[in-house]
Amino acid sequence: MKNLKYSFLFLLVFLAAGCSDSFFDINDNPNSPTDEAMQPNLLLPSVLNATATKMATSYDYAAHWMGYWARSGSYGPSNPLENYDLTTTYEQDEWVNGNTTVTYPTVSWYNILMDANVMERKAIETEQTFYVAIAKVIRSIGYMYLVDQYNNVPYTQALNLSEFISPAYDNGQDIYNDLLLQLDEAASLFASADVLVNPGIEDADIMFGGDALMWRKLVNTQRLKLLIRQSEIFGTTAPSEQLSKIQADGSGFLMSGETAEVNPGYAVDEYKQNPFYNTYLRDHTGTLIDNFNRANNYLLGLFMNNNDIRYQYVFNEARDPLSEDDLYFGYDFGFVDLDPDNPKAVNSSEVAGPGLAKSATQPQWLFTSVESLFLQAEATQRGWLNGDAHQAYIDAVTESFIWLGVENAADEAEDYLAQSRSIVSWSAAGSDQDKINLIATQKYLALPGINNFEAWVDYRRLGVPNVPLSLSPSRNGRHIPLRLLYPQNEYDYNGANVEAQGTIDAQTSTVFWDK
C-alpha cells in the first residue's frame, strides 16, 4: 500500500499539498489542478466512468476460469491463467495501477477508491450530501470486489496515507458489515438531499443525472448483492435487519429497463470509445482489437444444445468460418493445439457479440437490470423477499433476452422457458435448493460478457455451475482458484501487515463467505 498509485489528477493535488506556498508563488501554473479546485462535480464523472470501466473490462480471468471464454487458436498456452498456478504479480492491477507508461492506464480499485474518497471529503466540507452519498456507494462496490478476490484487505487505514503509510488489514466480514452501514448512510442522504445545494450534479452524475430515486434503487440492489454473497453464512436464517431496512426505504430495486450505466460522451475517437467495445471488439480506427478471447465450448454448448438463441447475441459469427456448420466456433479452455492448420482467431467466435457491443458510443453498464432481477429471484426463493419466486425467475430470464436485444425477446424467452429440460424447467427443480441452483445456472447463462465476475462468485458460493477444469497439461491437479494472492507490492512495501495474514494459497485459502 505504501506505493499506492494515484490517478494523474489526484497525484497533482497530493503533490501540491506537500509543497510550500512560496514554490507556487513563483511557479503559478493556472492549468494545474489544486486541492481547492478539486470540487465534487469535477471528480464524479471520472470516478463513475472508471468504476464502470473496471467492472466491464477487468475480469477476463474469471470468464476463462468459468467456462465463458477460451484462448483462440492463434495463441499458445497462457499461464498461470490456464494452469491455475497463481503468482503474486498475477492480476495485481486489481490492487495497484498497471500499464502506467501508456496513455490509457489500467486503473486499480484502490486508485478509484482514493479519488472517491477525495470527492467525499470535498463534498463533506461544502455539505454537498448527494456527492457524499455517491462516494459511499462507490466504496461499497470497490471494496466488495477487493474482498471477493483477497478476503482481508486494508480498509479503515487504507486511504489515510498521511497517518498510515503501512495500513493494517481489516477482516473481510468486518468490511462487508461496514459497507452495509455505508449504504444505510447513503440511502438516508439520497432521501434527504437538496439537489440545489449540490451544484452541477445533473451533469456530473453521468449515470442517473442526479435522480435520487434511481440512486436509492441502486443502493438497495447493492445491499441485496452483499447479502446474497453471504447466503451460505446466513444458512436458513434470513438477514432480517438488513432486509427490513431495504423494505423501509421504499424505493425498491433496479427493475426491468433500469440498468445503471454511464456515458461521459463516448465517441469514435482514441481513448474515447465505450470501454467494453474498445477492449473486446474494435478500436477507433475500426481495427479488430481482440484476437485472444473467444467463445468457450462449454458455454457455447449450453446455449446451442438447449435451444437458447442467446449465443447469437453474446458471441459473433466467425469472420472466416470453416464451414456453414461452424458459423459459431469455440475452444476448450486450456487445450494445447499443436496442429498449425487448426482453426485460428479468424475462424472462431469473438466474445463481443451484437447484444453486448452494439456501438462504440453506447453507454457502459455498471449494474444491469438483468443481474438485479436474478438477485431478487434468489432472494425471493430464499424467503427473504415477498412474492412469487417462480415469476421472479421468469422475469429475470426474460429480462436477459430483452437486454441483449433478442428479436421478439418476450416470445423467445417464453418458448425457452416452456422447455422441460432441467437446465431451464422450474417444475423439474424439486427442492428449494434445486430451485436456487436453477436460478444461479440461468444467471450464469445471462451474464457472460456482462459481468464475468459473478460466475466465479456463485461457483465458490454455491458450486454452480459445474464448469470443466482447464485442459492445460501443466495444471498438475490444481482446481479453479478460490482467491487471488496478495500483490508483490504489498510484500515489498507493507510486509509486516500482509505477512500477518498468514500463508495464502490460491487453492485452499478462501474468502470469508465461501463455505
Automatic annotation (TrEMBL):
<dbReference type="InterPro" id="IPR041662">
    <property type="entry name" value="SusD-like_2"/>
</dbReference>
<protein>
    <recommendedName>
        <fullName>SusD/RagB family nutrient-binding outer membrane lipoprotein</fullName>
    </recommendedName>
</protein>
<keyword id="KW-0732">Signal</keyword>
<dbReference type="InterPro" id="IPR011990">
    <property type="entry name" value="TPR-like_helical_dom_sf"/>
</dbReference>
<feature type="signal peptide">
    <location>
        <begin position="1"/>
        <end position="24"/>
    </location>
</feature>
<dbReference type="Pfam" id="PF12771">
    <property type="entry name" value="SusD-like_2"/>
</dbReference>
